[in-house]
Amino acid sequence: MIQKHLSRGFVKLLILLVLASAISCIPQRKLRYMQEVEESQIDTTKAAEIDNTYRLKPNDEVYIQVYSVDPKTYLFFNRGGDKNANYMNNEVGLYLNSYTIKDSGYVQLPVIGKIQIAGLTLQEARDTVESRLKTYLTEVSVVLKLSGFKITLIGEVKRPGRYTAYVSRLNIFEALALAGDMTSYGNRQKVMIIRKNNGKEDIITLNLLDKNIVQSEYYFLLPNDVIYVESLNAKTWGFEQFPYVLILSTITTFIALMSLIRTI
Questions:
Q1: Measuring CA to CA, how many Å separate 159 from each of 110, 163, 178, 194?
Q2: Ranges in the chain annotated CATH 3.10.560.10
Q3: Is the pLDDT of residue 17 over 80?
Q4: Crossing angle, helix 244-263 and helix 2-24, to 10 degrees?
């Protein structure tokens, strides 16, 4: 009688383990990005146009390099001059030789002073700086670009944190790659972009399983965006750390106990 009761308990335990395993498994259809994509369906024209119209904001960091026919003159406007030329080729040098746009929207260059560039595109800002420099230099040209593309990734990514990418533009997949991609429990249908716009925080939700994501105006990120990856229900219910080892150990002990009972 005892043996029969224990056998029923063993069967129930096995059923419970199977159900828990089934619930905790993440279906592949929830993990594959851009499902059912065909090359002919991908059109990034719209996203690229949005990217080219980015307007500078306070706290953006811009790299400004001045060139002219007279090296002795234009080196005065370039931080470090020739002696730090090699140093400027690395990330630290790029940061040290960049200008932070103040809250009032300006950068301050030697001699010429404050130049208002917040609200301008990169091309407009370059033209503005170049125009001011022509007062002091002849045949002047200016290189102006973002010195660092800063983003923050939190939630279900493998390495949450704040990252700086030294590129002119960054899409959502490249951003996730910086953090080692999502974990298996990241909800690829609910990836939120938190973006500051005119003093307010906008929240945009992206579905990365959608094959048309590359056509979204939010496919390319903006500097200082925050990306939050929501958790799937499997983790919310606590199955991420399901005690499989404990369950299997219990089953092994149970089998040994049953064998012992049969011998009595």
A1: 40, 10, 8, 18
A2: 29-51+150-231
A3: no
A4: 160
**Do the beta carbons of residue 228 and residue 194 sit within 8 Å?**
yes
Q: What angle do CA 146, 152, 157 make, to 5 degrees?
A: 135
Q: Report long-range pairs for 9-15 (Cβ below 8 Å, ≥24 apart).
A: 9/254, 10/251, 10/254, 10/255, 10/258, 13/247, 13/250, 13/251, 13/254, 14/251
Task: Supply 134's token pair.
Answer: 């022509």
How far apart (Å, rounded) are the C-alpha atoms in residues 165 and 2? Answer: 66
Place of tokens 């089934």: 22
Q: Could you tell me where in the chain the CATH 3.30.1950.10 domains are found?
A: 61-146
Q: Does domain 29-51+150-231 have CATH number 3.30.390.10?
A: no
Confirm whether pTM is higher than 0.70. no
- Say if strands 226-231 and 149-155 run parallel, antiparallel, or are unpaired: parallel
Has residue 174 got a pLDDT over 80?
A: yes
Let me know: does 111 contact 87? Beta carbons within 8 Å: no
> What is the CA 250 to chain-centroid distance, rounded?
43
Name the CATH superfamily housing domain 61-146. Answer: wza like domain (3.30.1950.10)
**pLDDT surpasses 90 at 106:** yes
Q: What whole-number distance in Å separates Cα of residue 216 and Cα of residue 211?
A: 10
% of residues, the chain, pLDDT over 70 = 61
Backbone φ and ψ for 13, nearest 5 degrees, come out as -65, -40
